[in-house]
Design a protein that fits this description.
This protein is α+β, with helices and mostly antiparallel strands. It folds into 2 domains: about 150 residues, Response regulator (Rossmann fold, 3-Layer(aba) Sandwich); about 240 residues, Phosphatase 2c, domain 1, CATH 3.60.40.10. The protein contains 11 helices and 18 strands. Strand 8 and strand 9 form a beta hairpin. Helix 4 packs parallel to helix 5. The chain is rod-shaped, with a radius of gyration of 39 Å. About 35% of the residues are buried.
C-alpha cells in the first residue's frame, strides 16, 4: 500500500467542490499505475475522504475486507488479476457490509460492461477521468453504502430487540408453566373412590393454561357436589377466572365454598344449585368489568337415593349413560354465568341407578374438528361414550382422549378440553 500523501498537483488542477454533506469515509483505490493512484488519492482527500491505495490486487482484497471501506475504485486491466475478477473475489469474501465498486475502463462494448456487472461491479468510469463525473458517481455510491449501513444497523437493532423479546418470552413461558401447575393444583385427584361413587377427571388446555375446570366436593355426609366450568376465551385471563370460581367450589376449604352453608361444628349442608348459580352470577357481574363469562354445570348427588339435582348455565348437556348402554342427555340449557343481570336458573333432576354413569364435559370435546372441518358434535361424543361404557371411568377418559386426537389428527386441541366422569355404584353398604 502506498501512502501517496505529498502529491497534491492533481487536486489543485481541478477546483471541484467537496462531496455532499454526510458523504465521506474510507475509499480504496486499486490501480497498478502509481501516477493514477496519486491523482485519485489527492482528489479524494480534497473531497473529505480517506483514501487507501494499492497497486496489488491481492493486497487490495485484504484491505477491502475492512468494514470501514465503503467504496472501491478499481482499474479494469492489471497484471495478475482483472477488475472483474477482483469484483468476483470481493463479493465472495464474505466481508461485513457492502462495498460499492466503480470500475475504471477504456472499454465501452456492451459485452464488456455486462461482464463487469455480472462480476459484481456497481458502476463504470471511462478513462480519461473527469473529476466532476467521478464526484457524482462517488456521491451516488456513498448514498447507497450509507443506506445499506443504516439498514444493517437497523437489522442489528432488530436482532437485539428480538433477542430481548425472546428472553422476555422465555421468562413468560416459565411463569405460564408455574401458572399451569397452580391451575392443576385446584384440580382434585384425577381419580377418586368414595362410598358408592367413583370419580374420574381430565383437564387439558390448548395453551399453557386455559379456562376449563372440573371438580367435586363432599357437600355433607352422603352428598357429593360436582362441577364443570368453561370460561370464555383462552389464556391467562380465562385461567385466572376459572381458578377463582373453582376455588369458590372447592372441597378443601368448605367454609369458603359458596355451594355450602355452615351449620356449626364443622358440619355443612348443600345449598340448592339454582341459588348457587344466581349467587355466582351476581358475583361475576360485580367483580368482572370485561366481557368474560362462563358456562357451568353444578350438581348434587345424594348417594343414598341416587337423586341427582343440577343447574345448567349455558353448558353442554350432561350425558347419562345407563348400565344397559342406553343414553340420555340432561338439561335444557340456561343462561351463562356473568352475562345477564338478575338471570334465573332452573334445577333439573335425574335418578341414578347402580351402574349408571354421568359424563360432564366442555365444548372443547364436541367442537373438536377433523381436518375437513367436521366437528365431533354431541352425537359423536355419545357414540364414543357407548363404545367404552364398560370401561372404568379412568380407562374411558384415556380412550376418549386417544380417539379425539385420532379424529383431529393433531397433537393437541384447538380449544381447552375437560371432562368429569361419575360412576354410581349405589348406596354404600
Amino acid at each position: 500500500m502506498y501512502p501517496e500523501t505529498s502529491d497534491r498537483t492533481y487536486a489543485n488542477a481541478f477546483p471541484v467542490p467537496p462531496l455532499a454533506d454526510g458523504v465521506g469515509g474510507t475509499i480504496l483505490v486499486l490501480d497498478d499505475s502509481a501516477a493514477q493512484r496519486g491523482m485519485l488519492c489527492a482528489l479524494l482527500r480534497r473531497w473529505g475522504m480517506e483514501p487507501w491505495s494499492s497497486g496489488d490486487p491481492a493486497e487490495a482484497l485484504e484491505l477491502a475486507r475492512d468494514a470501514r471501506v465503503g467504496l472501491v475504485i478499481c482499474d479494469w486491466m492489471m497484471p495478475g488479476m482483472t477488475g472483474p475478477e477482483f469484483c468476483r473475489r470481493l463479493r465472495a469474501s464474505g466481508r461485513e457490509g457492502y462495498a460499492y465498486v466503480i470500475l475504471l475502463t477504456s472499454k465501452s462494448a456492451e459485452d464488456a460492461l455486462a461482464e463487469g456487472l455480472a462480476a459484481g461491479a456497481d458502476d463504470f468510469l471511462s478513462k480519461p477521468l473527469h473529476p466532476s463525473e467521478l464526484r457524482a458517481r462517488l456521491n451516488a455510491g456513498a448514498r447507497i453504502v450509507a443506506m445499506q449501513r443504516a439498514l444493517v444497523d437497523k437489522n442489528h437493532q432488530l436482532g437485539r430487540a428480538l433477542s430481548e423479546i425472546r428472553t422476555l418470552y422465555d421468562a413468560i413461558d416459565v411463569d405460564l408453566e408455574e401458572a399451569r401447575r397452580l391451575q392443576l393444583s385446584f384440580l382434585p385427584d384425577a381419580t377418586r373412590s368414595l362410598p358408592g361413587v367413583d370419580l374420574s377427571l381430565w383437564l387439558e388446555s390448548s395453551g399453557h393454561v386455559g379456562g376449563d375446570m372440573v371438580g367435586w366436593f363432599e357437600a355433607s355426609r352422603g352428598m357429593i357436589g360436582v362441577h364443570s366450568i368453561d370460561v370464555s376465551g383462552h389464556g391467562v385471563a380465562s385461567a385466572m377466572i376459572g381458578a377463582r370460581v373453582a376455588g369458590m367450589l372447592s372441597g378443601r376449604a368448605p367454609e369458603q365454598n359458596i355451594a355450602l352453608s355452615g351449620l356449626g361444628g364443622g358440619v355443612f349442608r348443600a345449598l340448592p344449585p339454582d341459588f348457587v348459580a344466581t349467587r355466582l352470577n351476581a358475583l361475576m357481574l360485580e367483580e368482572l368489568t370485561g366481557d368474560r363469562y362462563l358456562t357451568l354445570v353444578l350438581g348434587m348427588l345424594d348417594v343414598m337415593t341416587g337423586q341427582f339435582s343440577f343447574v345448567q348455565a349455558g353448558h353442554p348437556h350432561p350425558i347419562l349413560m345407563r348400565t344397559d348402554g342406553s343414553v340420555e342427555t340432561l338439561g335444557k340449557g340456561g343462561l351463562p354465568i356473568g352475562l345477564v343481570q338478575d338471570a334465573t336458573y332452573q334445577v333439573y333432576r335425574a335418578r341414578l341407578m347402580p351402574g349408571d354413569r354421568l359424563i360432564f364435559y366442555t365444548d372443547g370435546l364436541t367442537e373438536c374438528s377433523a381436518p375437513d372441518g367436521t366437528m365431533l358434535g354431541e352425537e359423536g361424543l355419545i357414540e364414543l361414550s357407548r363404545k367404552y361404557h364398560r370401561a372404568t371411568g379412568a380407562e374411558f377418559l384415556e380412550r376418549l382422549k386417544s380417539d379425539l386426537r385420532a379424529f383431529a389428527t393433531a397433537p393437541g386441541f384447538e380449544d381447552d378440553a375437560s371432562a368429569l366422569v361419575l360412576d354410581y355404584h349405589g348406596p354404600p353398604t
